[in-house]
Each structure stands twice: as C-alpha cells, then as structure tokens.
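**Folding the chain**
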Amino acid sequence: MATAENATTTLEFYPTYCFKASPTHFTWVKMAVADVLHLKRRAEYPDQATFFHLNHPIRFIAIAGIITSRTEYPRVTILTLDDSSGATMDIVVLKADPAAVAAPELPQASAEPEQQQQYHHISPTTHHPINITPLVPGTLALLKGTPSTYRQTVQLQLERCSPLHTTSAEMRFLDQRTRTRVEVLSTPWVLGADEVGRLRREADAEEERVEAEVARGQRRLRRRGAREEREYRGIMERWEAEERVREREAAAARAAGVELTRLLASIKQKRRRVDHDDKVGERENSRRRVCGGEQ
C-alpha cells in the first residue's frame, strides 16, 4: 500500500493545456467498473469533470456488463451494472422535464405505454433524448458516460447506450478494454520537455488569438457605439434645428394673429362708429320731418 501511495505522489500531473496530447482525455476510454471506482479528482484542476487514473486525465468512459437492477425516481433512473470485475456501478440517467417535452414530439395516443416513455430520458450534456427502454435487468449492454461522484462514490452519467446482442460483441469490447488497460492505463502518461514546451507555446498562441479576437470584438463594439453616438447627435441636431424653425414659424404666426386681431378690432370699431352716425342722422332727419309737418 505504501508503494502505491509513493508511486501516486511521484506522478507528474501536466497542465491542462497538455491534455489534448493525452491518449485518454478526449475519447471513450474502455474500462472495467473496478477501475472506474478508483478514479480520483485533483484539487489543483478547476475542471471537476476530469478524473484521473494514475496521471491519465479521463472525462469519457465506456463500460459493458449486465444490468442487474433498475430503479425509477422522479428526476432520474438508476441502473446498476455488473461487468464481472468484482464491483458494480450505478448509472444515472437524467429524466427530461415533462413541461419541456413538446406535444408534437410525443407519440400518438394509440402507441404502447412503453413506447410513449422511451424518449423521456436525456443526455446531461447535449440534452438529446436517450432510449433506455431495452435496458432492463438481465440485459447485456454497452454504456457510455461521464463520471461524477455521489457520497464519495464514482457514478456514471449516461450519455449513450446500446444493447450487446451477441457474445462476440461482448468479447470484442473486453479485448479492446484489456488492450487499453495494458497499453495505456497500466503505465503513467509521460511527455517530454520539448513536447510540453510545444504545447505551452500552442496554448499561449491560442490564448493570444482569443485575446486578439476579444480585443477586435471590443473595438467593433466601441466603433459601433461611436457611430451610434454620432448618429444620435446628428438626429438631435437636426431635431433642434427643426424645433428652432418651428419656434420661429410659431412666433411669426402668433404675431400675425395679434395683428389680424388688432385689424379686425379696428374694422369692427369703425363699423360701429359708422352705424352710430347713420342712426344719429336718421333720428335727426325724422325729427326735422316731424317739425316741418307741424308747421
């Protein structure tokens, strides 16, 4: 036990920019359940989705065995798989939110109940539907997923699945799993200093490219903001000029209205004076006629 611990402590764990050179990081690693249960996380890596076997970074796992139980819960289905490696593993299958299942995607009401439920499970990463209807106890199946932990125990979040219908298919998987363990997982992952330097330069170049792209995006946003500001100022200047014209026109209209009112009042006053003079003349003429008649 002490030897194993010393071997673990002397392993070299490479920076995350080296992971793309790993034979296990971005592939479905065929493993036995007993080996999967011994995977560990490393505190110095922020990505808690990455587990390690020795110093091999692992994110995607493929296992094969017999489904020994299936338990339904409101939000997940738990499958237990036994691959005869001396351990069993729980496989977590996420259920889709019933409210998120669109009505057109549901089978017709005349379909069998098991057909209506077969696509109510989804992948936790892509949210694509997963059909686990064939995965009943006693079924030999190939399961692919991402590791996680629950109460210090490693589980598998199901991403893909398929039954193994023949013994030859199972034997092919076991042969590939054995070769992966012997040729890859049994020895630490080693990178030369030149390779680490090259990967570091590539990571720096990629980081610079991303920063340059971000800077270009920010410059585009600033230019767009400046252009919109200029357009806004132009619109406001035109509006203010139009407002000044409207104010002058309104002032001229008010002055013309005052002058027209004054002119109409003068005309009305003259008419009243003329009417008054006419009435006075008529009364004077009437009085004269009356006086002449009396004489």
